[in-house]
Amino acid sequence: MIKLHGFSASNYYNVPKLALLEKGVAFEEVLSYTGVGPKYKPEYLDKSPMGKVPALETAEGFISESRAILEYIERAYPDHSLLPDTAFGVAKVHELAQFIELYFELVARRLIPNLLTGTEPDPTVLKEVEASLVKAVAALKRLSTFEQFAYGDQFTLADIAAILNLPIVRNVGKKFLGKDLLTEVPGLDAYCMRMEERPHVKKIRADAEADRPGFMAHLKMLYGF
């Protein structure tokens, strides 16, 4: 049985976890918290060279980085595919998933330390984040109407990207910008509500909440907050 190393409070870890759940693939979870720099557990670097989560343990060896893990899962377990059946459709799903990761998640992530520590962000950084998110919101309206799923008429990797990354953007917006910029995207709020009703999404949320105290204790041990 394959093993997924990481922790449930991590949205990066939850990307392949949700994919495995949706595809009905049996897997074992191995709790692995990681830090930054020299405080990595040396043995974990054999699983993930940069010390990041997630890492997937297979009979052939370890795979790190969420995108690579998703590619392996799709090829190794083709049933219940999370991709459309046309080349164009596959490309559009990847386009939307990558767009959400690059222009929403990575941008909002700059303020995650402030969320975790309860501190105010640097005004320059805050201004840059807001400008980038405003631009991304305008562009997202052109990529999806969110009428049923993020793309097309089936649950895909684009939905996983949206479900697991957009809540971070909402949290950052409400906390530091005084507004939720994502409400400006037509259909997105209703779409998110529908996705939250999916059984596997509910499990992801519940597991993340249950793991949060352990994750915060880990951060306190490493960084003192």
TrEMBL record:
Q: Which GO terms describe its cellular component?
A: cytoplasm
Q: Which residues form the GST C-terminal domain?
A: 86-214
Segments forming domain GST N-terminal: 1-81
Q: Per the database entry, which stretches of residues form a coiled coil?
A: none
The protein, known as: GST N-terminal domain-containing protein
